Amino acid sequence: MEDAAAMLESYARDPEVTRFLAWKPLQSLEEAEKAIRSRVEGWRKGVSFSWTIRLREGGDLAGTISLRPQGMRLNMGFVVARPYWGRGYTTEAARPVVEWALAQPDIYRVSAVCDTENLASARVLEKIGMQLEGTLRRWDVHPNISDAPRDCLCYAAVK
Ligand SMILES: CC(C)(COP(=O)(O)OP(=O)(O)OC[C@H]1O[C@@H](n2cnc3c(N)ncnc32)[C@H](O)[C@@H]1OP(=O)(O)O)[C@@H](O)C(=O)NCCC(=O)NCCS
Q1: How far is CA 66 from CA 6, 57, 148, in A?
Q2: What is the Å distance from ligand 1's center to 105 Cα?
Q3: pLDDT 10s digits, 48-97
Q4: What is the CATH number of the domain that holds 77?
């Protein structure tokens, strides 16, 4: 919970960061605390697993990476604060998460889905060795762009 203010200030209230996400920019500390509570609940219930991405020096919060299990599959998502974009942090964070996930005996597939216009996200997924499987047409609503579901790219790594 002590990350709530940093989360809000560093990325969760930034419309540029949330542009292609499924949620609107957060407006208050209360909303950030609620979001963190839901992530803690996710761990407790085993429905989603979120980690913070922190700077090696100083430990500042740079972003979040999450896995959501669906049977023998996992879906990955990530977000990083704008000042830290383009430094390879997400690539560095995502690669071991996928490797770890596929090393689990019951996990055969890790996927990630991003808006077709989210080129930075697609590039990260390519860099970590996921394969583009296709376009999921009208797949997800990204409410900061439109209320209608948008086409998304589906990437995955399997064993
Ligand atoms: C997607 C995101 C997490 C990437 O984080 P990051 O730490 O900057 O990623 P990396 O630095 O590891 O790699 C980014 C790559 O995308 C490339 N890139 C960035 N913007 C790009 C663009 N507009 N077009 C093409 N490539 C782009 C970078 O050049 C880099 O590739 P390179 O190493 O070949 O040069 C970050 O942009 C972000 O938080 N976006 C908002 C939230 C989001 O969309 N999350 C994903 C939801 S599916």
Answers
A1: 18, 22, 25
A2: 30
A3: 999 999 999 999 999 999 999 999 999 999 999 999 999 999 999 999 99
A4: 3.40.630.30
